[in-house]
Amino acid sequence: MAVLLETTLGDLVIDLYTEERPRACLNFLKLCKVKYYNYCLIYNVQRDFIIQTGDPMGTGRGGESIFCQLYGDQARFFEAEKVPRIKHKKKGTVSMVNNGNDQHGSQFLITTGENLDYLDGVHTVFGEVTEGMDVLKTINETFVDKDFIPYQDIRINHTVILDDPFEDPPGLSVPDRSPEPTKEQLDSGRIGADEEIDDLKGRSADEIEEVQAEQEAKTRAILLEMVGDLPDAEVKPPENVLFVCKLNPVTTDEDLEIIFSRFGPIKSCEVIRDWKTGESLCYAFIEFEKEEDCEKAYFKMDNVLIDDRRIHVDFSQSVAKIKWKGKGGRYTKDDFKEYEKERDRSSKLALKEKVKPKQDAKYDLVLDEDIEESQTSRSHLAKKQKKKKHHHSEDEEDDKRTRKSKDSDRKHEERYREKIKSEKKDRHRSRSRSQERDYTYSKQKDKDDFRIRDWDKKADRSRSPKKSKDKERSKYR
Known about the structure:
The protein contains eleven helices and 17 strands. It is an alpha+beta fold. It is elongated, with a radius of gyration of 49 Å.
């Protein structure tokens, strides 16, 4: 009770469950006997799920049972056998495909995954692949399109019945030999099963090297996109930007712009400098408004002498000006297309360093030390701004550094203001203490004067009464 399927990729041996599924096995065996499956396409390959075949039309909408040949179109499909229940537990399980009405025709599927419970009770299991699992794996890994149709044809060339326990029903016509395939059967519109796929056939050595270089560049770009160093694998550098190297460190942006402007209007010209020292790195990028002007400059300015140096000119391969998130970023091709549209528009945004800070309306006490510190902080910021003007790209790290420096200056100023306030409070406290001392001293003095006066009075009272009376009499004389 087994059948051998000879495919274009190898042979498969299927053992049938004739006792559990007698009607499905009878249908399958007799279809193989009348060579119904010869040259049938494997038209549905879903990796690690199923492969489907059994339709002579190769569309998944045709096919008929052996009973249609015996009893006419009314017997095109037969009822599904659900008892006993057999599950799709392992790879290589063979099932009849349900047509949507719990009926089967000629189409069958072979599973390439395990524990496919959602197929149970829908498609009737009637056998399993016992030999040729490597062939099944090769079919499973074939390249397919979005509709799961293989790009290269995979066909059942021939079927051989190894053991048939069923007798042939009356009226069954068995051919003596396998019929020859028709042109319509073999013409699927895809790569033929016998065709050799060789893209390099008939090409010269230079063309082969060029194709290989393109493939290597594409794989590298995909790898860089996966790592996060490129926004998109198909990203292309702008065609209106020139890369100029081997410059003299003395050469400035203005000099290059004057020299290259004779070929056409220039959008930007920038000599790349070290962000710390501000010294020239001896290369620059020049962006033209038109690609034609850029090509003229490329052909005429290479190996030209500028400031006693022979420069080298090439088209820029840099995509550094593309604003993207970097590692872990998720920019799509549409985002990059929008960037290309907006790239020609001149940005009207002002830099953060150029924006003047708002002045406070409050008047604070300023000392010589404060003035010196503010001057040093301003000079420090001015140096940073000069260095940043020569920097090629405004990165997030530079923004963080400027923010940290500003925050440190602000904290320093706040600390100094708090110091001044504390000094004011100390002065006020010292004044209040001196006033309290003066007040206590004056009170003590008054008390002493009062005591002296009291003592004088007591002394007068202690004198003799005769002398006092004589004094009174002398007053009235």
